[in-house]
Amino acid sequence: MQTFDLSANGLRALNSSLHALKGQTNMTEWEIINPKGAHAIAAGVDAPVDITVRGSTGYYCAGMNKQATIRVKGSAGPGVAENMMSGTVIIDGDASQYAGATGRGGLLVIKGNASSRCGISMKGIDIVVHGSIGHMSCFMAQSGNLVVLGDAGEALGDSLYEARLFVRGSVKSLGADCIEKEMRPEHIALLADLLKRGEADGKASPHEFKRYGSARKLYTFNVDNAAAY
Amino acid sequence: MTEFLHTPPKQSWTFSNDVNAEIRRAAATGIYDIRGGGSKRRLPHFDDLLFLGASISRYPLEGYREKCATDVWLGTRFAKKPIHLDIPVTIAGMSFGALSGPAKEALGRGATAAGTSTTTGDGGMTEEERGHSKTLVYQYLPSRYGMNPDDLRRADAIEVVVGQGAKPGGGGMLLGQKISDRVAMMRNLPKGIDQRSACRHPDWTGPDDLEIKLLEIREITDWEKPIYVKIGGARPYYDTALAVKAGADVVVLDGMQGGTAATQDVFIENVGMPILACIPLAVKALQDLGMHRKVQLIVSGGIRTGADVAKAMALGADAVAIGTAALVALGDNDPALESEYRKLGTTAGAYDDWHEGRDPAGITTQDPELSKRLDPILGGRRLKNYLKVLTLEAQTIARACGKNNLHNLEPEDLCALTVESAAMAGVPLAGTSWIPGR
């Protein structure tokens, strides 16, 4: 176990150490202490290592993560795991705005609630939120899966492309071109797997969720849909 | 004498034939006009400025014997690996998707041969341009199409795009006609659908967030790469100041003559400011912060000649960027293709339906057959030649002003032909010492 005191040694030293791993290391377990809400903690990691952050983080923790498993023993600021490519990021607490924004792969798990614009413009990431999510979540989401055990705020999935959204609780409102869709057996199976990987399989049954997706009416610009744009 | 009995027909200035044609088109289709390129209206521009040259009070340099340096360093503020270019004329960001693969390759070849950089666009980095570009600037855009840390690290610099001159405050739309399998794959979207590019970044809002975003990008790239911030010509004083405050190494400022792959004509022609009006304000912001020449300024939007390059630099820019002119150098709007432009209902020089993907020159298209028309080697050679001419022309003017470095050109070398351009550029009206507003 490598223990890194962020407060004492600084962000640059942390990230340069993590970037130097490049998958060629025996130092596969890291613990970051005294994060004190710093920004860009463990951003740009590209190695199959396990990193535990003992405390809350600022903006862009685990940004563009590849391969690593990063667990935050606290809450995360805006843009956690933004543009993640692969690996797993788990937030024990809540997450602020833009969680998982533009993520292209991997799994983001938020044990608490996520704020507005969760999964905005996601491009393949899977996101599991144990609590609720805020407004405008999954705006222009392109692909990947969002699972919400709680409720969703206003304008869920506005201008959605091919991402799949599963919400167990209420949805305050759906955004433009986002509609409820049939839950078929393949979706139940997908959801069961996501709940399991998202450490939520004991908390909810796949059958309790509704599925939302794109009506695909805005895929081609049409002046008759102008009111929806 | 009967011809004097009737008032001759008189066309309206307000309701001109062009205006009426657009009203009829709008009435017939119910949709606004979308096109590529930048503003086509007559604007105060570099044409309205003149260099004074040397005489008794100024000492010129010998045109063919005395050196006039053209190189420029970009990104010297924070980056461990700033960029050094042989010439101060760079290639602006244009996407693969908007442009064909051979066109992107030609831009890379030409820029590299001339000793300058080229820039990706909305759609990610292609192997064609990375492989053929010695110095490649990677754009970080709101859509994040194709964005990944590997390409971020393969880039020589990163340009965070906040806005562009053709449409400050606007996003974009790549119509389905241009969404080939490859473009769709790079953008993680189904083939053939219209692909929207957002007007705002998804994970930051405002200058304080931008500062943290730049920190994250620097951390991911280990503080090696210069980070540019590109802004459209909206409020250049404040936007430049905020970009500097956020930590930009380089500010890229794009005036309303700067082109776009596609947006509404009403947007292109009515939002933003001409580059002439933008440069002095951006330079003033840098000077007020004590950062002029420390944070470099690249300007774009209507750069066509070496005189334009020299005038932009005399007003305080460190370098310029060209987009439309580079496409013309490759063969865009060539009169040799007139018969084909006619078939598209247009004429050489006026073709701007770049979004439709039917470009006879094979540049703004994803059609494999049309794309083949552009030979990237020949195109690259033409671009290199053009860049060399721009540089030689700018040097010619600088020597005539007694400058042994293009960066030594200054507003004092200029005068203005019109009151408007004098006020915008902050240089005296020709034959006077009057700078309107001062």
The oligomeric status of these chains comes to: heterodimer
Low-confidence stretches of chain B: none
Order of SSEs of chain A: EHHEEEEEEEEEHE
Give the total of beta strands of chain A.
11
The proportion of residues forming helix of chain A, as a percent range, comes to 10-25%
Q: Beta-strand percentage of chain B?
A: 5-15%
Helix content of chain B: 25-40%
For the terminal residues of chain A, how far apart are their CA atoms? 52 Å
Could you walk me through the main structural features you see in this protein, from its secondary elements to its overall organization?
The complex is a heterodimer of chains A (229) and B (438). Chain A has 229 residues and is an alpha/beta fold. Chain A has a single domain, classed as Glutamate synthase, alpha subunit, C-terminal domain (Pectate Lyase C-like), CATH 2.160.20.60. Chain A is 11% helix and 23% strand. In chain A, strands 1-2-3-4-5-6-7-8-9-11-10 form an 11-stranded mixed β-sheet. Chain A is elongated, with a radius of gyration of 18 Å. Chain A starts with a strand and ends in a 15-residue tail after the last strand. Chain B is an alpha/beta fold. Chain B has one domain: TIM Barrel (Alpha-Beta Barrel), CATH 3.20.20.70. Helix content of chain B is 34%, strand content 14%. In chain B, the strands form 5 sheets. An 8-stranded parallel β-sheet of chain B has the order 5-15-14-12-11-8-7-6. In chain B, α6 crosses α7, α7 packs across α9 and α9 runs parallel beside α15. At the A-B interface, α2 of A face α6 of B.
